[in-house]
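Instructor's aside before we start: the two examples that follow are unrelated to each other. I chose them only because their records fit on one page, so don't look for a connection. First example below.
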Amino acid sequence: MSSPGSFRLSFASLRMPFSDGVKYTLLGISVSLFAIAALILTWQLYQYFKRKPKPSGKVKSYQSVDDKQAGKTIFEAADKESDIQKHDYKVQKLEDEIKKLSRCLSATSSISEQDSADFQSITEADAQVNIHGKLRFSVSYNREQSQFAVTVLDATDLPVRDFSQSTNPFVKVKLLSGSLSEQPNLQCVLQEWETKTVKNSRNPVFGSQFSCPLTEKELKTITVKLEVRDFDRFSRHSVLGELRTHLNNLNLLSHPVEISEELQKLNKDSVGEILLSLKYLPTAQRIEVGLLKIKTASLTSNQDKALYARVTIVCNQCRLKQQKTSLKSKWGITVFNEVLTFSLLDSNIRECVIAVSVYETIVHQKNSKRLIGQAILGKRKAGEDEHWCLMMQSLRQPIAKWHSLLI
């Protein structure tokens, strides 16, 4: 058995199996790492002592004889500051509620006039009250230039709004034609114009003339529709009445014709059909609106024109949500096959109205969109739509149905 002395001797005689060059290299690396660590520690200490202490809002130094009185003052100031913050929070909350209510009461004031048309049409029929008054206009045709012209002259004895006792009338002129469609019930809007707005006048004078090229054959199929509306900057434009004139009944080839007639109730025209599917998911509180196909009056394709649809959910005359589809090239029957999903509360879903507005736009041209028709379904004053009732009876199943596009 070896003694402790012999063990120490053998341990001292051990040698590392490295050359002197390797040993000095390892020693240099160790010294370098130690120096780097020392520099980092020194820099951290410097930054720590250089940093200034943050002032505390709760701790304040007072040079006062009575320390209790100073402490009482501090707590009173803190309580006042807390009360001010609570008051500011309540005021901010009330302002947010007022903004929400203002958006609901005037849902169309924050959007453009063209985009607000889908919301206006939902209650447009109900706004037609006290239809009376006359509209005078003239139509003419230049056979040499094949040019048709319509001149809106004036109106008399227009109704006024009850709350303001005034009216700001303007006239929207449309040229409707059914010759481009194989279906006699569908109309095609060839042209659309608007006169200037005459402020605060029940007997406005317009004097606006509009013209477009038409052949004698097309002239016999044209219907001139003039809609008299009351301009409202902060709400929807009220409908004051309309006039229609079939050019086939007039002898325009010989001389211009002037017409003055009583305003009639506004009647919408069918310009196409749209195939929609509805599916209601009560557990997920979701409604799915599928836009499948759109059938328009024109059967000829035009690669420069495209269609898209905007679906708007309205409840209690307040716009809740809206989405739009992608652009599709316009054909006689344009296929979309798109599904738009809306997450709403169950109470809103059961009381809402769905407005589908179809727009036509020219590709690669800005600000060229034009509303060509709308389909509105859901709960309204006249009752529930048939399609809506079928959706409520067939939960979690898509129900498809054709709807007329009206303008």
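Example two begins here.
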Amino acid sequence: AELLQSLARYVFQSENVLCMGDHVSWHAPLDRGDSCLQHMLLAQDPQLAPIKTPLGTVRFVQVVAVMEAELDAAQKWNGPGVLQLLQKHKITGGPWLVADMRRGETLFDVDPLAQVS
């Protein structure tokens, strides 16, 4: 909850909008423990479809925990592409992009052919 509150505070104070494909460099374990997952990518929520309201469309964004190498790939290549690669393997989040905070292998350890240029 503290992590989401910090993101909400950032959005409110900066007036920046967080969108699918964005990345957030956090540089600290997201679980406040010793996890290697220390950064975030933002994905379209795979379960909640956009909804139309009288004030416009609401799109649900999911925070996806990633490692340094995955963040680097998103920055050098593109966030949505890295998210698609993460969805291919259960250990890296699977189709729902659910993080195992104990994960110690990067996407590129799990799937060496996934290297991006």
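The first helix runs from residue 2 to 14.
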